[in-house]
Write a structure and sequence with these properties.
By secondary structure, this protein is α/β, with parallel strands linked by helices. It has six helices and seven strands, in the order βββαβαβααββαα.
Length: 196
């Protein structure tokens, strides 16, 4: 099945995790979604969950979260080759589940990926991604955004979840500011000699 123009290619989950049963999401998922974009990108973007990549008939489409994110990225000159999009939980929730258990179980996958891939920057979008990545239920995007910080030796940026930006257009200006900061950090990392 061909993808609609613009939707990022999916990064398949490791074979040994296709039938993961470590949390209650395994009871309701259609599949494990590992990530999308470039798995070797220097920027990892973390969302709370994969959301929908297909409609109820299984036809791929670009959901509101991705559409808002893609628009912001294109406005700062970043795209699917520059980023790897992944999630706190690797299965799309369709009903209630034990969030704490699922998040803490799945976050280990992200830590393993960071150890293996060594991205230059992790971007947490939304409070769920932020709290899960920092292992701090009190942390909030609004007090962390606007700068690059280091956590566990990894440069990290924070911004609003694209759905929050869609629902509250007033956040769009801040969302774009954050992506400009991320793009300039990315440019310095790729071409350090030309940015003094």
């Amino acid at each position: 099945m061909s993808l609609p123009p613009g939707i990022w290619p999916e990064d398949p989950a490791p074979v040994e995790l296709l039938d993961c049963r470590k949390c209650s999401l395994s009871q309701q998922r259609s599949r494990v979604l590992w990530g999308e974009g470039n798995p070797d990108a220097k920027i990892f973007v973390l969302l709370d969950n994969p959301g929908a990549r297909e409609d109820k008939f299984g036809v791929p489409y670009i959901c509101g979260t991705r559409e808002t994110l893609y628009l912001a990225l294109s406005s700062v000159g970043l795209g699917k080759d520059d980023l790897y999009l992944t999630y706190v939980v690797r299965c799309r929730p369709v009903r209630k589940y034990n969030k704490e258990q699922a998040r803490s179980t799945c976050m280990q996958h992200l830590y393993d990926q960071i150890k293996t891939k060594k991205p230059k920057l992790v971007v947490c979008l939304g409070n769920v991604a932020t709290q899960s990545f920092l292992d701090d239920p009190e942390s909030e995007v609004k007090s962390l955004r606007g700068k690059i910080s280091f956590y566990n030796g990894t440069a990290t940026a924070f911004s609003y979840h694209p759905l929050a930006v869609r629902r509250r257009p007033i956040l769009n200006k801040l969302f774009l500011e954050d992506w400009k900061l991320i793009a300039s950090f990315h440019a310095r990392e790729i071409f350090p000699a030309s940015h003094h």
